[in-house]
Amino acid sequence: MTPVFGFNQVRSTPLRLTFLLLTIFALAALACLAVAFEVTRTSIDAAVAAELQQTINEYRGIRDGDDLTERLAEAAAKTDADVRILFYVPDRGSVISNVASFPPVSGVTVVSDSYIRAKSGSVSDSYLALSARVGAGHLIVAQSREQVEEMGEIFLAVLLIGLLPALLIAGLAGLWVARGARIKIDAIQHTLLELKGGTLSARIEGVEDQNDDLSGIGQEVNRMARAQEALVASIRQVSSDIAHDLKTPIQRVAVVLDQVMNKTTLTEGQEELLSKAIGETERIVQTFQSLLQLAQIEGGAVRDRLHSVDLAEISRDIVDFLEVEAEERGFALSLRIQPDVATCVRGDRHLLSQLIGNLVQNALTHVPQGGPVVVGVTRTGGETVLTVSDNGPGIPESERSNVLQRLYRLDQSRTTEGNGLGLSLVSAISDLHGARLTLEDNKPGLTVRIAFPATEPA
Questions:
Q1: DSSP symbol at 163
Q2: How far apart are CA 374 and CA 391, in angstroms?
Q3: Order of strands across the sheet with 137-144?
Q4: Contacts with 166 (C-beta within 8 Å, 6 or more apart), sequence order
Q5: From CA 140, how far away is CA 155, in angstroms rounded?
């Protein structure tokens, strides 16, 4: 089943790329609008400044002071202050202006209406003012910047009416494309997880007739899965053939040895050697069966047997079964279960029993001095945690990944019974149940910790 795409998956690469591209597009569009506005504004202000300079030059051309004063007074009376302001301060005499007050300026300056007091009516929001010495006084000519303000409103309208809908449409299209990419990525990830879990028949659907890069990756994953399935099937067939070919000879050897032991008269030395041969034959059978079981578990053949089981109940049964043996060998086997919590997991009862039994037997075998062996079952968040602890020599941190491999044994364990497959089976069963296996220092000794995804009772 392909996982459903969620828009809250902010860590999704397609979604993040969509947001990144939208951000780049928005910033580029805003930058273009800002540059266009600035160029247009500068052009308008330059034209207005040239017009103001021309007006000042006209008044400078009037040489007679009385005539200049008369012309300025006439112009101030006729000029609408909302469009243009004339403010002349003579060296002697009263101010000639069409406003009550205007701030002093130097050169070409933008002046806000908050610094201007009108005689009557209202003034524009801002002016471009030019100050110069004219005749026997100081003249300020200011032109309304209404064109610039209207242009700003136009650009804002373009932004709201043009850019934002474009971003919305592009965003929806990007999310649709990202959703398609996310579905394919989730399908690839889901299939890879199934393949990792042993479901070799898992395939990515809907990518065979597509030409995009993600579909190409999906097609390669399918080819790899088909090749892996064929290879594993071949290995399983070889294992099955070996099992059939060796099963009967090994059984015959065991039967013959048993007949020799029970139906013939042997010397004390012959009987001892025969007993060792029978023991070695049993070890061969156990090793062979463990390898076959390990291959079966890693192949996921028992996955359909998983259902809700109580891990605490299984642990209690195993501890009760092995308690007498542990006491005879000088160990104190105990069980600690966290009270008043559900300890159910989705698993196979037989395999979980074997897992716990292997861990306990491992402790009984590799702790020569005896002592406490504690099996614990707790609930932590969304996990049911199984622990088996002892006070033996433990496992060096550098060797903890190695002991999970098949037939690997530590140097100090080579003189004890076993075939090096116990922890390999534990690791395979843990992986089959989706659990995390860690080997930890018990100070002294070893703690095997297996965290299972918790589930509700059936």
A1: I
A2: 10
A3: 96-97, 84-90, 137-144, 126-134, 108-112
A4: 29
A5: 31
